[in-house]
Amino acid sequence: RICVGVLALQGGFHEHLSLLHQAAQHLKSLPADFSFTQVRTSEQLAACDALIIPGGESTTISLIAAQTDLLQNLRDFVKVQKKPTWGTCAGFILLSQRANATKKGGQELIGGLDVCVHRNHFGRQIESFEADLDLPFIPSSSEKEGERRPFRGVFIRAPVVEEVLGGDSVEVLATLENRVDRMRAGQSQAQTRGGSGDIIAARQGNVLGMSFHPELTQDARIHQWWLSEVVARR
Ligand code: GLN
């Protein structure tokens, strides 16, 4: 049995858990049985084989985790035990080695992904946007052979990778070049947010980060893919 935890200090943990359950339904053929659980303490973390850190507010999450030994144990989970860990938005920031300081100052990070992220890259809350993404790593739609259904990327005060520090060991999984709605809507680059080179998904070994919020969609394909990666890494 594989125990997958979702860090439940703040942010979209309920949403991640519901998509994990949905994804597991699709993975019935995998030779694995999953249990999903909320993680608020170091004891709960110790029971997990893999972890999701949700979107929300990274400073808040790290301040809460630092009140106990949880922050240190998260670092150990990711960097020493090297268990599969996936962060979305604020979770991505926390898993980065560095985040550029904002006016209000920085926060303590977990690290593990050798990148420097730029927090709130696209601006403030009001500048949030959604974009259709073509993500080559998720299972293609079964509806039509060979045709991939785009994934709706929800970007809310989203970070992007400003600098890859880790060289070849960091895999770029998607940039805004994977955005497919721009041309479809006939919009120019200037009318849509972000430069096409902006890195919005990256992986280094056991650590995965994404700028957007799959947990705020009803689409479990990324969760499905990640769970099968978790099984494969066992
Ligand atoms: N920009 C936020 C932060 O710094 C993350 C936003 C989000 O997770 N939607 O934590």
Automatic annotation (TrEMBL):
Q: Which residues form the active site?
A: C89 (nucleophile), H213 (charge relay system), E215 (charge relay system)
UniProtKB keywords = Glutamine amidotransferase, Hydrolase, Lyase
Q: Which reaction does it catalyse?
A: L-glutamine + H2O = L-glutamate + NH4(+)
Provide GO CC annotations from the record. cytosol; glutaminase complex
Keyword check for Lyase, yes or no: yes
GO terms of molecular function: glutaminase activity; lyase activity
Q: Which PROSITE patterns does UniProt cross-reference here? A: GATASE_TYPE_1 (PS51273), PDXT_SNO_1 (PS01236), PDXT_SNO_2 (PS51130)
Task: Report the EC code(s) recorded for this entry.
Answer: 3.5.1.2
Q: Which InterPro entries match?
A: Class_I_gatase-like (IPR029062), PdxT/SNO (IPR002161), PdxT/SNO_CS (IPR021196)
Q: Which GO terms describe its biological process?
A: pyridoxal phosphate biosynthetic process; pyridoxine metabolic process
Q: Where does L-glutamine bind?
A: G56, E57, S58, R119, I156, R157
Q: Which family does it belong to?
A: Belongs to the glutaminase PdxT/SNO family.
Name listed for the protein in its UniProt record: glutaminase
